[in-house]
Amino acid sequence: MIDVNKEISKYHPIYMDKKETEDSAGYAIGMVLKTVTDEIQKFEKRQFMTVQKIEEIFAIIEEEKELTEALRECKKMLQAVEEEKQCIIQGVITLGDALEDIYRYALRSEEESWRQQLEVMWEKTGEQLSLFGISRIEGKGQMFMPEFQVAQKVENHPDLPHGQVIDVLRAGYLYRGVLIRKAEVVVNNNLQGSV
């Protein structure tokens, strides 16, 4: 038969004898130590994961530094290319100005064949420039546009509309729609005051 008191004493410390009390105290200490050990292991795992993440962050930061340096180098190269492009455009415009001087002189010449040849050359040069994104600004016979032209002279011709460009002294230029230089023009003024 089952001894109920003996069975109950296994579960209640009041009924435990000294040996059972020592065993249960050892068991409790063991459980506490196991819990502490488990928590330390969990902490170590978390610490290890944190260190790994920190190392990953440092690796990303190093990559960012390298990318930033590469980006700086690319910007420097791009700036050098842009400066070189501007020099080339200015060189082309300088050559265009020299050609324009000859062209404008030929327009005032009495030699018809020479004038016609230079007009054709002037037009073909303009077509070639446009292939590279450079456009001339002239506007003879059109209305004065202050955003693209500078009035260097004003003349009075009552038979022409007020504000019409009578002559172009120096062509202006656009590069891909960006103003490089305004055209210098002669404008009609048949009103009192200036244009």
From TrEMBL:
<dbReference type="GO" id="GO:0051087">
    <property type="term" value="F:protein-folding chaperone binding"/>
</dbReference>
<dbReference type="GO" id="GO:0042803">
    <property type="term" value="F:protein homodimerization activity"/>
</dbReference>
<protein>
    <submittedName>
        <fullName>Protein GrpE</fullName>
    </submittedName>
</protein>
<dbReference type="GO" id="GO:0006457">
    <property type="term" value="P:protein folding"/>
</dbReference>
<dbReference type="GO" id="GO:0000774">
    <property type="term" value="F:adenyl-nucleotide exchange factor activity"/>
</dbReference>
<dbReference type="Pfam" id="PF01025">
    <property type="entry name" value="GrpE"/>
</dbReference>
<keyword id="KW-0143">Chaperone</keyword>
<dbReference type="InterPro" id="IPR009012">
    <property type="entry name" value="GrpE_head"/>
</dbReference>
<dbReference type="InterPro" id="IPR000740">
    <property type="entry name" value="GrpE"/>
</dbReference>
